[in-house]
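quick one before i forget lol
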Amino acid sequence: MNIPSRIRAPLDAVTGLAVWPYFLLVMAHMGFGSNQIVGKMVQGHVPPVGFSFWRWVFAVALILPFVWGDFRKSFSVVRRHWKVLALLAFSLVMLGNTAIYIALNFTTAINAGIIPVAQPAVTFLLSWLLFRDRLTPGQALGAAIAVAGVLTVLTKGELGSLSALKFNTGDLWLLVSITGFSLYAVLLRKAPKDLSFMVQLVWIEIFGVLWLLPVYIWETAAIQPMTLDGVTIAAVAWATLVVAIFSMVLWTAGVNAVGANKSSVFVYCRLFFITVAALWLLGETVEVYHFIAFAVMLVGLWLVSSAKVEAPG
């Protein structure tokens, strides 16, 4: 994404670094965090696969008119690279997003927050397995510090409670989800460079809809159809505009700018926003440990974002 210099320059001037990709990643994860809150709120009312299917359908419908000219010219490129785009769509739409909605029908709030902490580790592992990327000591230390900060929030400062966690079906679906998001971030480097950013995103969403279609038909016939009412419309509209478009655009731009490993650690921002939103919706109060954990998390994010990436071996 080409950020105008009049916007990028003030951001860079704050620390002397090119910080605009990190700003985009923080904003993206705010939107992603809202996705989990909305998904939990409509649990049992909106079927998970149908929820995912229609949000991506409407995302394509809203974005496509703005890139129609370039989209029409992209078919020859897509014919050459359709396997990569289909794999990206499977990772993002089928595994990453849809698995979240399924998981929220089974898992507890604390597990839904704690399991995604593993996403950076999964991203680092996939980067090493697929492309032999190396990690710097600074990145590893920053990730560990950020994990400590997030766990402090999620356990209310009582890290000993982690030993009592029991994984259920929803927890396993969350593991599927973070693997999907991590794989998508790692494989973005293989996306065709001769497609513009937005056209590439539209094609990934189209392939994602095709992946979802047979599963959606099965869910409608065998489990639960979509109900057209105010709750469903509001949930799908939010998931489309804020999550599928706003957050995905910013997140993909951030990943393209700084790479999969650095961008993956910003999942901690998402978890922080989820925690704050859950506390507010449940009427709980903010404690001292929340501020301590957030400060620790920021230190970890700074270490990761400022570390230099070693060349692959």
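fyi The chain has one domain: 5-306.
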